[in-house]
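Hi V.,

You were right to ask for the full record rather than a summary. Here it is.
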Amino acid sequence: MTHTDHRRLLLLGVLHHAGMHGYQLHAHIAENGLIGLRRPAAYALLDGMVGRGWLSTREETVDGRTRQIHQLTPAGEEALLHLVRTQLGQDEPPDLPNLVSLGLLDLLPADEAAQLLRQRREELLSALERLSPDDTDDPHHGGLLGLVLGHVAEVRRAELALLDQLILHLEHTP
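Predicted structure:
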């Protein structure tokens, strides 16, 4: 599957349970940390899926603001199931682009690299706090999404441990 297919799958999966406007959808995805998806890319994908007939839109006005609410169509349900079946049947290497820079730490002075890692560590701790146990409760999947989000938290904690090791190493580098 392509990177775009993974993003479509995520958007369709979230919309499977309830219609949402783009900002709600992006906030929900950003909280869970499964895939990095910037707002412009999300809107472009949503527009493309509307064009394919996978999503329908309706306008909703709240507090004087008009928003486009996106909902799955029957064709969108079929596309969602096709993408789920395709991805589940394939083994793909983990896509961890935020780790690339860690392999290139030696390009920076040790004190600068350590400071940047401390900054990253704080952001990671904040992300872990947002991924609370309440977020892993999932009535729609019988707890299965909770297991997946728990795994995401474990991966994030493993990265935190790696950052701690790297910072310690850099602090003791002449």
